[in-house]
Amino acid sequence: MVFSASLMPMYGLSTSRDPAPLHEPPSRRAILTLFAAVAVGWLPVLLARGAVEAIASLAPLATSPQAYFIPSHAALLYIGVPLVVVSSFLLFLSPGLFVVLALGIRGGITRWILTGFAASLVVFACVCTTVEAIHGSALRGVAFMVLQVACAFLAMAWVWMR
Questions:
Q1: Which of 4, 32, 73, 118 is 20 to 30 A from residue 156's alpha carbon, by CA?
Q2: 37-53 as b/e, with b when 16 or more CB fall inside 10 Å?
Q3: pTM above the 0.85 mark?
């Protein structure tokens, strides 16, 4: 997700290199804008679940004489897959990013992303372990994506309620 320097203070993030905390939390409008932007960012991974399988089926083309550019599959290889990958990163980071906002941890955008990544790792480790222990098997595919979206919405609700 790309933030311009003018929007960063609106989200409670510092534009300076100084990691000093900001004193004002993000406004309700800023939180809603962030929620909407993140939800739109999830669309490629949620709607194009077959992209990974489609790209895996093209593995034999890697041994062709023209392995680095395959014009017949250019849209999938060079637009579709990168969109799905970036969207999956955003889906994974979302719960942690919102947990960091809910806890009131302030600083620059780098600190927000890195702390959000760490928080996402902790959230998913705890939630997945609990759900898999109750369910009795590992979560895969749609079930795992539903769990990711649920964690993100719970974290969003926490930010909204504080």
A1: 4
A2: ebbebbebbbebeebee
A3: no
